[in-house]
Amino acid sequence: MNFKNRVFGCAVVRAINANYNADFSHQPRTLPDGKVYATDKAFKYLVKNYIKDLYPTEKVFYFKSQKEDFNPRSLEETYDFQFPESTKKSKTEFAQDLLRCIDIRCFGATFAMKAKDGNNVAISIHGPVQVNHGINIWSENNIFSEQIMSPFADKEGAEMTTLGRQSKLQEGHYLHHFSVNPKNLEEIVKLAGEGSQDLIGDDISKLKTAFRLGATYFDSAAKAGIDNEVLLWIQLKPESKKVLPSFSNLIKMVKEDNKAVFDFSKVKSLVEDNQDDIHAVEIYSLKNSVVIKNKPETAKSFDIISGKKI
Length: 310
What we know:
The chain is of the alpha+beta class. It has helices at 40-54, 75-82, 91-98, 102-107, 186-192, 201-217, 265-273, and strands at residues 7-18, 37-38, 108-114, 120-126, 129-131, 134-136, 143-149, 163-180, 226-236, 252-256, 259-263, 278-285, 290-293, 300-303.
């Protein structure tokens, strides 16, 4: 069944002695005022990685893959790999193929390659799911660097092995605001014609699970220490046209008794003011290390790991 509801919410990723999203100097990214942040791409990478691994029947197009010679596939090679049966004869066929990928149905795409007749094909798909940069809402932004020793020399005859350096954030709580607007996909589905795949309820169910668990699931050396900490999911009624503001400035966080305490008082006020438009409010959190204060009275609370009601 097609998914018709708008959704607004936020996902908080906790980083303890970790580097959630490094810049090209390998440091955690910082704003001009020194506050640590992560791009939307960093969060969406974790979400797509989770869907790719946990739902192997789903096609994930915009994700690095390698050929037999260990080199990464180009855009055209990825298309041929994902759709070996494609005749590449029409823009409609390209559009239908792209809509078969869950990451494109959710996040959209900017796609350009040559068709079989040599003509250029360019398709832009406005994704229903939009994710903002994640800003650290914890008051401290302590980045530290350390030297690490390589087991290898960098040249023949060297008497010492080489030294490297890695940087991490002592503690951060990155809040990503997100929204879901299924109407963004209506036009491209209509243009692609009969048989084109729209955003369905099963897509959203998988997306929400990946929003809840994708960071915790990923375990690279740099990202070891990051966890999904909180997920706020406010789903509007199908007929509602309300647009809720960004949650980036509505949620505050402090530490009490070694637990992260999130103050939802402004979210509570927002929910009460728009209650007639809201279908459900769900709050997922790490129940052993997180306290949610002033949550909306209609909200249902769940453990973010098990998904069980608290």
